[in-house]
Amino acid sequence: MNKVVFITGATSGFGRATARRFADGGWALVLSGRRLERLEALQQELGDKVPVHIAALDVRDTKAVQEMVNDLPGDFRNVRSLINNAGLALAPEPAQNVALQDWHTMIDTNITGLVNVTHAVLPKLLETGKGASIVNIGSVAGEWPYPGGHVYGASKAFVKQFSYNLRCDLIATGVRVTDIAPGMAETEFTLVRTKGNQAASDAMYGTTTPLSAEDIAEQIYYVCTLPDHININRLEIMPSRQAWSPFAVDRDK
Ligand code: NDP
Ligand code: 8X3
Q1: Which of 27, 40, 38 is nearest to 78 (CA)?
Q2: 189 in contact with ligand 1, CB cutoff 6 A
């Protein structure tokens, strides 16, 4: 079979665009996400081009993740690249106003979920050895604080440091590790963050030029198809029309 890429969060945004990009490159696809009907639509779309295996999966469910990986059929087990993309932000308001459950959901998905999948797939990547890759989707929020970032940014800082630490342990295995840290990109991200507020999502992206899902998919594909001896440690990518803020100062009213 062709090279196999395993993508989490393939039902939308970066994950779906990445599935399409790897299909264009002739890779076989293992696609997961919670929304089965979207996975089926993607399999329908790409299945004539490359082999596609789909599995409805919540990355927070440790047992389900391990079972899904154990049950990979035939050559789909020969995973060459793992794209840890499933994730979300919630509650863009100040930390002091956020429901604890929203913090837990971000930690469970962006940290525990990513760790669950990495632990389950790692033996397959080690069997592949030279040329294998783990690409973890971090964020500029993991490096740069901003109001409303609270646990989301902290979870993406975890992704960065976990990626670097994995590199240290995997140095002699041939398995490469990259933290890709995108800035503002138009996907369903803001719709999820605002719990369905389409106007907020339109306002976020409509008056500037954000990155597209395809822009990030192209970078993910690039990282995974470099010659085996090259490891990109971290790629931080912003739209040209996004940059950092000045320091905030609280002044007397
Ligand atoms: P989308 O909301 O469009 O896609 C998120 C994907 O994650 C969906 O496929 C969703 O699938 C999946 N997902 C969420 N929770 C779970 C879960 N518990 N189990 C399995 N899959 C899950 O957003 P993006 O494409 O923008 O987000 C992809 C990644 O990129 C995230 O990690 C996000 O934090 C990160 N990111 C996004 C940026 C942006 O500006 N868009 C910038 C920087 C980083 P389903 O709901 O079907 O389970
Ligand atoms: C999301 C990117 O710029 O909204 O990870 O924090 S941003």
Answers
A1: 27
A2: yes
The structural domains of the chain, with segments of one domain joined by +, span 4-237
Core vs surface per residue 114-126: b (16+ CB within 10 A) or e: bbbbbebbbebbe
Q: How confident is the model over 153-180, as a mean pLDDT?
A: 98
HEC letters along 167-214: HHHHCCCCCEEEEEEECCEECCHHHHHCCCCHHHHHHHHHCCCCEEHH
pLDDT in tens, 69-103: 999 999 999 999 999 999 999 999 999 999 999 99
**How many CB atoms are closer than 10 A to CB 225?**
14
Q: Phi first, then psi: what are they for 13, rounded to 5°? A: 50, -135
pLDDT tens for residues 108-129? 999 999 999 999 999 999 999 9
Backbone φ, ψ for residue 136 (5° rounding): -100, 130
Entry pTM: 0.98
**C-alpha span between 51 and 191 (Å, rounded):** 31
Classify domain 4-237 at the CATH topology level: Rossmann fold (3.40.50)
Q: Is 185 in the pocket of ligand 2 (CB under 6 A)?
A: no
The residue-averaged pLDDT of 175-180 equals 99
Contact 69, 4 (CB under 8 A): no
Instruction: Please list the residues that pair with 136 across neighbouring strands.
Output: 84, 179
For residue 180 and ligand 2, the question of a CB distance below 6 A is answered with no
The catalytic residue among 152, 205, 221, 222 is: 152
Q: Distance, CA 87 to ligand 1 centroid (Å)?
A: 4
Q: Is the distance from CB of 178 to CB of 232 less than 8 angstroms? A: yes
Q: How confident is the model at residue 2 (pLDDT cuts 50, 70, 90)?
A: confident
